[in-house]
Design brief:
Shape: globular
Enzyme class: ligase
Bound molecules: thymidine-5'-phosphate
Number of domains: 2
Strand content: 25-35%
Distance between the termini: 23 Å
Catalytic activity: 5-amino-1-(5-phospho-D-ribosyl)imidazole-4-carboxylate + L-aspartate + ATP = (2S)-2-[5-amino-1-(5-phospho-beta-D-ribosyl)imidazole-4-carboxamido]succinate + ADP + phosphate + 2 H(+)
Radius of gyration: 17 Å
InterPro entries: SAICAR_synt/ADE2_N, SAICAR_synt_PurC, SAICAR_synth, SAICAR_synthetase, SAICAR_synthetase_CS
Largest sheet: 7 strands, antiparallel
EC number: 6.3.2.6
Organism: Peptostreptococcus canis
């Protein structure tokens, strides 16, 4: 499949049309941003790792009954995906307190929840992706109640599947962000699942193996991404 016109360039990926109206090509970059683009940098090899990791995880989720936008890997940075209409929500699932949860609510990082939380942010860079709830999402016409129910139930199922998958690699899944899209009337999983969009901690030492190393200037960023790659075996 060939790249046609570029439709969009985001912070971490470019998106191209193809000759199939149902398919796009996403091309992963090494660019990294944080704090709504205020902090900028490059993580060498990140595009390759995020592409191959997302595709491996999407294939695993598909085998377990979750429909995703993944179609086929072209090469280490480029993938064919279904052309979805993105629901403008960042869907965040948490198993352990960290990041904005800890900051906003004064809960120590590492506090384990009895059951996972699900939250929504409105995907809107001008507003800084504000936290919203179900009724706000409906008022803003971002999704219907039925779609929100489906998104929450898929997100929790994805959490159970991913937690088990990462544990086999001695990694704890602390939290992560998903995006969903509409495809021929169905809600399917889209975007990416990578160290950019998950918090991943070593099971024994709690060492951070994700983008928090970039956000918080913890060093050894490339090393952490490579460690995840080698543990997941791709
Ligand atoms: P948070 O604690 O900063 O709200 O982040 C929760 C999770 O969502 C964490 O795994 C990182 C991920 N995330 C993104 O993928 N994109 C974003 O823009 C933000 C803020 C977080």
């Amino acid at each position: 499949m060939e790249k046609l016109e570029q439709l969009y360039e985001g912070k971490a990926k470019k998106v191209f049309k193809t000759d199939n109206k149902d398919h796009l090509i996403v091309s992963y970059k090494d660019d990294a941003t944080a704090f709504n683009g205020l902090k900028k940098g490059t993580i060498a090899g990140k595009g390759e790792i995020n592409n191959l990791m997302s595709n491996q995880l999407f294939a695993y989720l598909e085998e377990n009954g979750i429909e995703t936008h993944y179609v086929e890997t072209i090469d280490s940075r480029n993938t064919v995906v279904k052309c979805v209409e993105i629901v403008p929500l960042e869907v965040i699932v948490r198993n352990v307190a960290a990041g904005s949860f800890s900051k906003r609510l004064g809960v120590e990082e590492g506090t384990v929840f009895e059951q996972p939380t699900v939250e929504f942010s409105y995907k809107n860079d001008d507003l800084g992706d504000p936290l919203i709830n179900d009724s706000f999402a409906i008022a803003l016409k971002l999704a219907t109640q039925e779609e929100i129910d489906e998104i929450k139930s898929m997100a929790l199922r994805v959490n159970e599947l991913l937690k088990a998958y990462f544990l086999r690699a001695n990694i704890k899944l602390i939290d992560f962000k998903l995006e969903f899209g509409r495809f021929h009337g169905r809600i399917i999983l889209a975007d990416e699942i990578s160290p950019d969009t998950c918090r991943l901690w070593d099971k024994e030492t709690n060492e951070k193996l994700d983008k928090d190393r970039f956000r918080r200037d913890l060093g050894n960023i490339e090393g952490a991404y490579s460690e995840v790659r080698s543990r997941l075996g791709f």
